[in-house]
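From: lab user (bench 3)
To: helpdesk
Subject: output format question, protein + cobalt (II) ion

Hello, I'm new to running complex predictions and I'm not sure whether the block I got back is the full result or only part of it. Here's what I submitted:
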Amino acid sequence: MTLAQPSQSSAPGANPTGASASSERFARDDWASAFRNVGVELSDVPLQPVRGSLPADLVGTLYRNGPGRLERGGHWVHHPFDGDGMITALRFEAGGLSLTNRFVRTEGWLAEEQAGKPLYRGVFGSQKPGGLLANAFDVRLKNIANTHVVKLGDQLLALWEASSPHALDPDTLDTRGLSLLDGVLRPGEAFSAHPRFDPGHHGTERMVTFGVKSGPRSTIRLMEFAVADDPASGVKAGQLLSERSDRFGGFAFLHDFAITPNWAVFLQNAIAFNPLPFVLGQKGAAQCLASKPGGQAQFWLIPRDGGAYAGQPPRIVPAPEGFVFHHLNAWEITEAGPDGFGGRVEGPALVVESIFYADFPSIGPDTDFRTIDFDLIPEGLLERCTIDLTSGTLRTERLSERCCEFAMVNPRREGLFSRYGWMAVAERETGNDPLQAIKKLDLISGERTVWSAAPRGFVSEPVMVPRPTPAGGPEPAEDDGWVLCLVWNGARCASDLVILDAASLAELAVVELPLAIPYGLHGSWVPAGPSDAQPSATHQAG
Ligand code: CO
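Helpdesk reply: Thanks, we reran it on our side. This is the complete output you should expect:
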């Protein structure tokens, strides 16, 4: 892989849009070579960079989750999202780096290892062998634990939004089993794969998350957990601090959400679910989702415990057209006046920054995911919605024309106005393509800084790690820290860990992993500390 130096581009649209066919824009064989099984589980393998050096004050663990098994007994998944969850831990200690990886020992993974063939259907359309007869009326879900991994208390949680988390040992990655979080969850209860870590808006750090029970009416259960032990109050890390449940009209498809000090922000896409083809064995459950013609997307705003609106009913605000999986951040404007971006608000306002798709990118039952035409799928575009809570009106602006996914702010700024966002982007300036570069976007000036892995490299979610605050010293600048990213190296047919300077996106180190990891989903950084119950510990969600 050619690792280019970061390129500074300032004017939007400075580069040609590239009207070439997707076959000329990127090396499809290199891109598709990432779709494979992870064939080995490694323990504490020491690693050294092939270029650059490890930052001395980067100490902690990067956990990544994603599908690690895409084929069994010659039967391929229909979509990579149906692959079994495999956790990678990259542990940075004084002067060294080591790697451990483990499949999550889910009930389905264990049974299929024994059987040597798929025994379950997948949500994204994977079928059991044997055609319609074998698949019809089998509506069991296989909890594949493949979407995100976060640390809560002394547990590492492998998350999959339709069911309970799996608890793992944070050091060995051994699976302890399904976790109901000390009785907080009922068996099989939905538990989002997108927790948000409140850095301390209400005193102490919290993990805020939710579960959705969908139907003709849908219920959101919002939960807030302590992240650290608090000897003064006796609260233990991982303990549920507060919860509320709210019912909304209509079928809810909610993958992600955003938080501010006062609000939990949900965007309910205008989407319909027709379960019949799923029940009949023709489609996976997620393939039965479709845009609802004439439907109206809505923001569902739920007041958080401890905030200014605590205990009040939710507010519902019409949302722009389009489809959203992921949010970058949300924050509040507290009083009437200019919103700072060319508009005005009449009173308190809520600003939500999200990645919008023109339509729900559905995956047809006859499509081979390795041959998809990127030109036929809408790209993700970052937009800012300013919701005036007094007038109930909304203003939307596009923040970038470049295809992006997997965006985050400095986790210390989660829920507050943040000047910078880091995200995975396509190599060209407009249009849909695989993610091959990392972008830092200045959300005030629009200035962009890009590090690219093109032509033979393909990026996954970048994780921004803030530089630790020195004892007694001032908090480092918002963009002071590192960006960690696993890159699929098409030349090597294996994965690289790339460490960038968060401010300049200069490449600090490249580590060639002795592993070939398919494109992953989400992950998090857990800083090392004298104790994991350290109140200043910083977690981050992808
Ligand atoms: Co996600």
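A quick orientation on your result: The domain at 21-537 is CATH 2.140.10 (Methanol Dehydrogenase; Chain A). Let us know if anything else is unclear.
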